[in-house]
């Protein structure tokens, strides 16, 4: 069953755990994510950015996710990751997504707030959740140099106004994480996270750049109110590396299904680990 993301986040808030939000672009990445959730009786968020939706097939994604989730007896939210504009969000509402993100973090604060508010109005009218973003979540390359510049991080007072004025169901914040592989260990600004949570009256907070955050930091972030953590690089890297090394070691093997299944097993193991780390196993 597909459910609005805020329903899953509401339970996560009550149970004080977080839910992995996993990027996928094809059936080979979708299946192992759902299988891990099924095995551990965990809620799960499947998410895709515009390029991933396009690659999968814009008209196919929702139907496929729903069919497989129903067959597996799973409760899943399907979320647009890093939506770039109002039109993209509306397209996803029409496609049957149950949550959309608008990433206006590159825009001036007022413009980000105005567009996010419009998307919230449209999405809430049909019961769909919205994630906003405030502060700049960098790529790992930038993070290595910038060491999370103060002014790139989310301002807690600004976050409070943003949350109140837009009505978002969840807020992605910048506290020192980055997308991609970290060049050096990320240092998370937990005080900032705590402040944002206080001032937003315990709004579910989202952490992007889940791949490679030290486990102790993940646990602490969840204890302080992170309710959704995004994982993308680890899924692609585990799939590709497993596929590549098996093919290299077995150059005569042309069984696409054989090699794909080995790679999918590796992705499933990674998601099982994420679910356990975030503490959402056994929550459905
Ligand atoms: P990683 O690629 O670092 O796992 O981050 C994923 C993400 O935040 C997608 O929005």
* CATH domain class: Alpha Beta
Structural class: alpha/beta
Question: Secondary-structure element sequence?
Answer: HEHEHHEHEHEEHHEEHEHEHH
CATH topology: TIM Barrel
> Strand order, biggest sheet?
1-2-3-4-5-7-9-10
Bound molecules: 1,3-dihydroxyacetonephosphate
- State the distance separating the first and last CA atoms: 12 Å
Number of domains: 1
Could you say which overall geometry the principal axes of the C-alpha atoms support?
Answer: globular
Tally the helices.
Answer: 12
Please identify which CATH superfamily we are dealing with: Aldolase class I
How is the biggest beta sheet arranged? 8 strands, parallel, barrel
Mean pLDDT comes to 96
3D architecture notes:
- There is one protein chain.
- The protein is α/β, with parallel strands linked by helices.
- The chain contains twelve helices and ten strands.
- It has one domain (5-278): Aldolase class I (TIM Barrel, Alpha-Beta Barrel).
- The protein has an eight-stranded parallel β-barrel with strand order 1-2-3-4-5-7-9-10, surrounded by ten helices.
- The structure holds 1,3-dihydroxyacetonephosphate (13P).
């Amino acid at each position: 069953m597909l459910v609005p993301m805020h329903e899953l986040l509401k339970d996560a808030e009550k149970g004080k755990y977080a839910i992995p939000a996993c990027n996928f672009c094809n059936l080979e990445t979708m299946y192992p994510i759902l299988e891990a959730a099924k095995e551990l009786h965990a809620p799960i968020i499947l998410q895709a950015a515009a390029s991933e939706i396009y690659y999968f097939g814009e008209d196919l994604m929702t139907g496929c996710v729903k069919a497989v989730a129903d067959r597996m007896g799973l409760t899943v939210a399907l979320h647009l990751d890093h939506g770039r504009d109002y039109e993209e969000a509306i397209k996803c509402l029409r496609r049957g997504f149950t949550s959309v993100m608008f990433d206006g973090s590159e825009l001036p604060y007022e413009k980000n707030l105005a567009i996010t508010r419009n998307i919230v109005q449209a999405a809430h009218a049909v019961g769909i959740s919205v994630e906003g973003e405030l502060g700049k979540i960098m790529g790992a390359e930038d993070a290595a140099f910038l060491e999370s510049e103060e002014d790139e991080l989310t301002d807690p007072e600004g976050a409070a106004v943003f949350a109140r004025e837009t009505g978002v169901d969840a807020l992605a914040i910048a506290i020192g994480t980055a997308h991609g592989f970290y060049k050096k260990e990320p240092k998370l600004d937990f005080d900032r996270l705590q402040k944002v949570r206080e001032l937003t009256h315990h709004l579910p907070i989202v952490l992007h750049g889940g791949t490679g955050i030290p486990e102790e930091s993940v646990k602490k972030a969840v204890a302080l109110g992170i309710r959704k953590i995004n994982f993308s690089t680890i899924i692609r890297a585990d799939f590709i590396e497993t596929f590549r090394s098996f093919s290299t070691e077995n150059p005569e093997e042309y069984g696409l299904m054989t090699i794909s299944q080995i790679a999918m097993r590796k992705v499933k193991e990674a998601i099982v680990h994420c679910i356990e780390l975030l503490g959402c196993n056994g929550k459905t």
